[in-house]
Amino acid sequence: MSSFISRLLKSSLPTKRLVSQLTQRGEHKLGGLMRQLGLQKLLGAFGAKAVVAQRGIGTTPVAKKQLTDDMELATGIFKRELQLRQAGCNDPWAMAKPMKRGAGRENDPTVVPSVFDGRMVGCLCHDDRAPKWMWLEKGAPKRCECGHYYVLKKAEPI
Known about the structure:
The chain is of the alpha+beta class. The chain folds into three domains: 1-65, no CATH class; 67-93, no CATH class; 110-154, Sandwich (Cytochrome C Oxidase, Chain F), CATH 2.60.11. It has helices spanning 2-10, 16-24, 27-37, 40-45, 70-73, 76-87; strands at 110-114, 118-123, 132-137, 142-143, 149-154. Zn(2+) binds at residues 123, 125, 144, 146.
């Protein structure tokens, strides 16, 4: 039977005789093989009886519904951020680029905006790779280890 199958696979258009020889021998084994090779339609085209009955697929109609929009589900700060993005502000938190420090003197410190009364600030001192972190609070300017001064400025909440 394997010689018949190899002949069937090699031939571009199998003959009726070859198909009938394949269907007469070992119908149970051949049916599984034909199903794997996808040749059931080929058998029907040559008038041979289908070895394996095709099973119908039952489906139920499903209403196609759109997914819910993010704006309908969003609340709080996330909703405000989405509204700002729709208005054209792609960086509402001002995190796209780091702040450049100013003069940094005691009478002219670098201004850091914050909605809260305190903020964590990192200073890159003398071309260090790792920043020096410090907690900056509302009030008088605070000095970094390198001598640079920072002051907290009250910003409007988003």
